[in-house]
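We include the entry.

. . .
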Amino acid sequence: MNLEVLNRAEGYCQLELWKDAWDAMEELYNCEKAHPEAAAIRLRIVVALSMWEKGEEVADHLSESARIEYKRTAAQYYLKRARVIFYEGDPPEARRHFQKAVGAWPGIDREFTDWDLMELAPEGFE
């Protein structure tokens, strides 16, 4: 894992220089991009740049991780994507992403959701 690239990308993220962060992450080999730590950084960048088409595969990968912080990052992506899709007028697709968020991180609670999205919540969600 190229820690210099990860540290540089993380620094760009902290400065909200999202395009620079993405460009830095693109320097990694594909096998390095798949590492959960790199994937979590990439997912934050994807959300910031609204590069949704690149995010779902990364989120799916992170949601399978054993580490709760990676699952939480994936869940936050799914919720943000659900919100965008919901407001674009596609509730069934938004519901799919909302349910993926709950599946990725069952500990998710309303603090991380948009009240308008609660109609998408699976039965028993509190």
User: Anything to note?
Assistant: The chain has seven helices and no strands. The longest helix spans residues 68-88. The chain has one domain: 3-120.
